[in-house]
Amino acid sequence: MKWQTQLGPPPQEASETDPRSIVATTITYLENNRERMHYPEYRRQGMPVTTAWMESLVKELNYRVKGTEMFWNDPEGAEAILQIRAAGLSDDDRLVKHLRNRPGYPFVRRPKSPRVPSEKNKS
Question: Which of 10, 20, 87, 123 has the least CB density, counted as fewest CB within 10 Å?
Answer without folding.
Answer: 123
